[in-house]
């Protein structure tokens, strides 16, 4: 990519049929809907895509289908996280060969008792960078249980050629983003936040240039970023306040199920199935989600009707 990515880079949900099989046709409709939402890029196979419930064969199918269907309309970021360095390296090569614009990966982890030392983490990312020629986004998320210090992240940005984007989802993300930007300087090309933009204003104040949310309301969240980066902080704050009730409900009550429920309601996909051991959301939570979504007149809620 010649121009650094900014704005909103949402995660695409993985649609399943009611019987749990992946739905490649539904995946294509999800991607089309997200492009109509005005996204700046799309991330596939992330945690909000239920990547931890997909087989290797399913991952390969979804990667190929997604990249072929998007066909360069927007950049596609492929998540390749795994504990084994050989596996992430192979996934990286495959994604790049199919047209991925960027890779996203968490540090290697397999429970709190099996976390590599910093040298192993550095080498993990170095091996992927050596295997490809596209940018890598480091996902710094509590889910991994791995503590990525600012000095380590800054060193990775300085010394690993393709590590230049960072998605910060840790507690006190704004402070960590600010410290990373100061420590890494020009090597921090894309400082991003996550968590459905629940801390977006603070993170923008800290210097982030974009956000990776779900596919629920990108068209409503993107103006927060664009207004802020254009210097109109009042407009950014007003838009964030408008979005915040739904952001909070998704972030704290719904999780990855939210985008699927709204997309099914809006005719984007035929099923909001999540794979066991995940469970469908309660009727109470669903009712509030749809009510808040209707108030914002979301694209996903009307796209297929």
Automatic annotation (TrEMBL):
Pfam families: DHDPS. It comes from the Bacteria. One of its GO terms (cellular component) is cytosol. CDD domains: DHDPS-like. The keyword Cytoplasm does not apply. GO terms for molecular function: 4-hydroxy-tetrahydrodipicolinate synthase activity. InterPro entries: Aldolase_TIM (IPR013785), DapA-like (IPR002220). Keywords: Lyase. Pyruvate binds at residue 212. Belongs to the DapA family. This is Dihydrodipicolinate synthetase family protein.
